[in-house]
Amino acid sequence: MLVGIVCPGPSLAYWLGNRPPESHDLWIGVNVAARSWACHWWVCADAKPVRDGKAVGEPQLFTQRQTATRFLHLKPDVDGCHTFEASLTEIPVETGWRRTSMTAAMILAETLIGRTRPAEIRIYGCDWAKGAKYFNGETDILGASPYRFEGEKHTYGQIARWLAARNIELTRMAVPQGVAA
Length: 181
Known about the structure:
- It is a single chain.
- The chain is an alpha/beta fold.
- It has helices at about 10-15, 50, 65-70, 100-115, 150-165; strands spanning about 1-5, 25-30, 40-45, 60-65, 80-85, 120-125, 170.
- The chain contains 5 helices and 7 strands; from the N terminus they run E-H-E-E-H-E-H-E-H-E-H-E.
- Strands 5-4-3-2-1-6-7 form a 7-stranded parallel β-sheet.
- The two termini are about 25 Å apart.
């Protein structure tokens, strides 16, 4: 099974015009990326991406319970909305996977893959570029923080090792060298 995760980093602009030729079984959109890329699932830790725009198609939403109920007024597990807290993952919450939408998308991908092997997760648009704008020119409101991606990188590493132990390949897809993102 091949799962693609699209993140809203600047390099997603390249991938929008150069979609991978391989057929992916599932697509998961992170935050504003789901507004430009048709996905089966939309992962948003907070309400802003959902309130500020509509996703392409009709993806299932994966978010925090508080975001769903308090800010979006959705009923988890009823309105096409599923919560981080109800996830059946085996990875410990202490890893911090619930803190960012991208790491929650990795856990969702593992959950959807289940026991299917071979399995691979490819992540597009995950640039970890401090102060960067999103692929669509919107400003990442957290991008100015010097610590914006440090915690996410650490959690990514923990999840990557956990996935490898489960025989799931994980790849952050880079824009080909010499091509502007």
